[in-house]
């Protein structure tokens, strides 16, 4: 393990430092280019700060990946799909695109991954067995595998977008998720040949360190915001890493469990109320926590602590049965939080 870690210190350190430099440049250049947010649009009483931080994340990710990761069909598919997500996210930040356009591009980016050979071929179900997704095959296409892969990518991508309501949440969750996938990728107890995972491990570490560097400027007091271009890009990369070279979907689900369950609840609630599920509101978990007199710093710290805790569980307990029990604990925790938020006094408006 120690010898293997020696392969990663350079890309990790450089990804971190390169992102820090890009953030510092963005703080100086973006205001001059008019790349700032509009706080008055959302009723916020503060001065505008640099926006479109997704540009920083995208440049850092592409450059570091091209420098440190050998290019093959799968990596090229990841880079191409990530570029699609970044472009549509940036256009949405600038102009506000139709949700149908965004969903179509997200779907297409998932298809690109499939053509790149990245897909979920099976799912291990605790106490039941393995659910094979590589069959049936229609005209050479593994229908279930393709559909589940695209669904997974779109779900995680939009989960990261939904959680980007407070500075530090998306970057912090991405740091924990990327670091968790990195550790699992080089875990000798999971992979008989950890060296076969060097590519995905390197990408996971790169995105973790990029997220950590951005977090320094995103929390506790945001100096730059990543926008949809950044949050959806991070979500796309993490979703891909979870299925790239070895399949770590269950692990990613545990690490992203709170934001995923929160997204499911929000979508169901909006649908039952007869509203469009993509129409934003202030009823996400982090908004509700703010509503009981918790500060943004406290909410982000609590959120990231729980996410990191489940990341540790995901690395420590690797069997499907163990992950099932952790998932049950996660659901119980979410139910407890939901019940607490109903009965605790809310902040007066």
C-alpha end-to-end distance:
53 Å
Strand content: under 5%
Number of helices: 14
Q: Which of globular, elongated, flat, extended, rod-shaped describes the shape?
A: globular
Count of structural domains: 1
The neighbouring-strand order within the major sheet is: 1-2
Order of helices and strands: HHHHHEEEEHHHHHHHHH
What is the alpha-carbon Rg in Å?
20 Å
What proportion of the residues is helical, as a percent range?
A: 55-70%
In total, how many beta strands? Answer: 4
The unreliable regions are none
Secondary-structure-based class equals: mainly alpha
Name the average pLDDT. 85
Sheet bearing the most strands, described? 2 strands, antiparallel
Secondary structure blueprint with pairings:
Layout: H1 2-5, H2 9-33, H3 54-68, H4 73-95, H5 99-115, E1 122-125, E2 129-132, E3 137-138, E4 141-142, H6 143-162, H7 169-185, H8 198-218, H9 227-243, H10 249-255, H11 257-272, H12 285-290, H13 296-316, H14 320-343
Antiparallel strand pairs: 1-2, 3-4
Helix pairs in contact: 2-3, 2-8, 3-4, 3-8, 3-9, 4-5, 4-9, 5-6, 6-9, 6-11, 7-8, 7-9, 7-13, 8-9, 9-10, 10-13, 11-14
